[in-house]
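Hey, I was hoping to borrow your eyes for a little while. For a while now I've been wondering how a particular protein folds. The fold is given in discrete form, as structure tokens running alongside the sequence. Could you read through the record and tell me how the tokens relate to the sequence? Take your time with it, there's no hurry, and the full record follows here:
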Amino acid sequence: MGEGVCVTLPVNGHSMLPFIIGGQESVILQKPVQSKKGDVVLAWVDGCRYVVHRIIAIEGDAVTLMGDGNLSGTEHCALKDVKAKVTHVVGADEKPHDLYCRWRRVAARLWWHLRPVRRYLLAIYRRL
């Protein structure tokens, strides 16, 4: 990634549902140019682990992250600990899907505002 090369990384867990399905999809990572609110990134948090989560706030050098599938928990890191930006999601069809196409950006904003009812929507999603 340091040389401008893209890397594909399989993801696990449910913290990015419904936009990234852990155990079934991979993400394509690229060196971040300038991180901003709304970006999905690979970040080193708590000095001990990597997470793929969405940036919900940047204040100076402090970054706050939250998984789309999380109901309330956030992580924090320094801007220098944002190691890569997720650019695409690769599903079972092995075709890369742009994470920032218009419909996904609109869906992510809507999903953010649906936080009070995410618990119910995720329960329905997991049962389908």
Summary: The longest strand covers residues 49-59.
